[in-house]
Design a protein that fits this description.
The radius of gyration is 22 Å and the shape is elongated. Helices cover 20% and strands 2% of the residues. With 171 residues, the protein is mostly helical. The longest helix has 13 residues. The protein has a domain of 35 residues. A hairpin with a 4-residue loop joins β1 and β2. The structure holds iron/sulfur cluster (2 copies). The site of one iron/sulfur cluster has 14 residues, from α3.
Length: 171
């Protein structure tokens, strides 16, 4: 869940500080803390990478067979083209856990291309099968992003084996 930022309050506080001649001495400790807080609030958490955890013991989590946009009897994806057959073990970045659609006559929207949604075939798209998954149940990619770009990322690196994110890369 993204944190709600408060840019208006911060801007007003800074404007008042700027017109106060007392501030010629430089930013106060309070200003510095506020700036640090603002910078921290702008760092991305792992929702920016679409990190998802399974609910309960869902088998086939993060794959078309358990996606709410999968038209199972057709079998197609509701957002992709009717020309593209979709299997239960495919996946993409638009996945959400839900009951597949049980209406064979429902035509897909053709709203996106496979490339645009990161469509991937026949792959168990879960952390346990990703090159970045470490034995201590952490994500090496998240660790590296935090370490190399600390001003941009504040990612919780603990991940579950059956979870997934949009940066999945098969081993
Ligand atoms: S291609 Fe993506 S959106 Fe479509 S059914 Fe599969 S996971 Fe869901
Ligand atoms: S291990 Fe892979 S799929 Fe899991 S969070 Fe890290 S990059 Fe994403």
């Amino acid at each position: 869940m993204r944190k709600i930022q408060e840019p208006v309050r911060n801007t007003v506080t800074r404007s008042i500080a700027e017109i106060n001649p007392e501030n010629d001495r430089g930013p106060s400790v309070g200003d510095q803390q506020e700036t640090a807080e603002a910078e921290t609030s702008q760092r991305r958490d792992r929702s920016a990478l679409g990190y998802l955890e399974p609910k309960g013991t869902t088998v086939g989590f993060a794959q078309c067979g358990t996606c709410g946009l999968f038209i199972r009897p057709r079998p197609r994806c509701y957002v992709l083209s009717d020309q593209l057959m979709v299997d239960e073990d495919d996946s993409c970045t638009q996945y959400f856990l839900g009951d597949p659609i049980d209406e064979p006559e429902l035509e897909p929207m053709n709203a996106a291309t496979p490339q645009e949604v990161g469509f991937i075939r026949d792959t168990n798209t879960r952390c346990e099968n990703c090159v970045s998954f470490a034995d201590d149940f952490s994500c090496r990619l998240f660790q590296e992003l935090n370490a190399k770009l600390p001003g941009l990322f504040n990612l919780d690196v603990g991940v579950r084996p059956k979870a997934c994110c949009n940066a999945f890369q098969p081993q």
